Amino acid sequence: MNPVVQLVVERGQHLSTAEMLMDASIVILVVFVVLLLMYILISLSGKIIQAITKIGSKEEPAKASASAASPAAAPAAAASEEVFSSGSLKLKNCDEKTAAMIMAIVADDSGIPLEELVFKSIKLVEKN
Questions:
Q1: Which of 55, 56, 65, 69 has the most CB atoms around its CB within 10 Å?
Q2: Is the pTM of this model over 0.85?
Q3: 3-class DSSP state for residue 122?
Q4: Is residue 118 a contact partner of residue 86, using CB atoms and an 8 Å limit?
């Protein structure tokens, strides 16, 4: 027997079914209110962290363009951020379309993603 029910029975008090259901519903309501408050706090903290990281990421490019030597260099710095480059590629007797095809084939055959590969040069070897 439940210790609380046993205590009530020993004291001679009788709880009706309605009273027991009322007590149980109050406990369930309190649990759900606490869960709702936890959900709200976690959502708010997530939004605050996202806002802080957005502000931090907006300040870094602004600092980089402010430290540029001339105003003409600022658009070039902004354009270079949008383009991904992992170095330079020297093409010897090979056009860009063929080089792109070779890089795609190498990435597919090796199973390594193309963005993780670094090509230094591609040279067309002629058959004798």
A1: 65
A2: no
A3: strand
A4: yes
DSSP state of 124: P
**Cα(27)–Cα(34) distance, integer angstroms:** 11
Q: For the residues of 47-114, what is the DSSP string, one character each?
A: HHHHHHHHHHHHHHHHHHHHT-SSTTHHHHHHHHHHS---S--EEES--HHHHHHHHHHHHHHHT--G
26 pLDDT more than 90: yes
CA 116 to chain centre: 20
CA angle 27, 4, 7 (to 5 degrees): 150
Q: What is the DSSP letter of 12?
A: T
φ, ψ dihedrals at 126, nearest 5°: -85, 145
pLDDT at 54 over 90: no
- Whether residue 83 has pLDDT greater than 60: no
Q: Distance between CA 62 and CA 81 in Å, rounded?
A: 12
The answer for 49, left when phi > 0, alpha when psi is -120 to 50, beta otherwise, is alpha
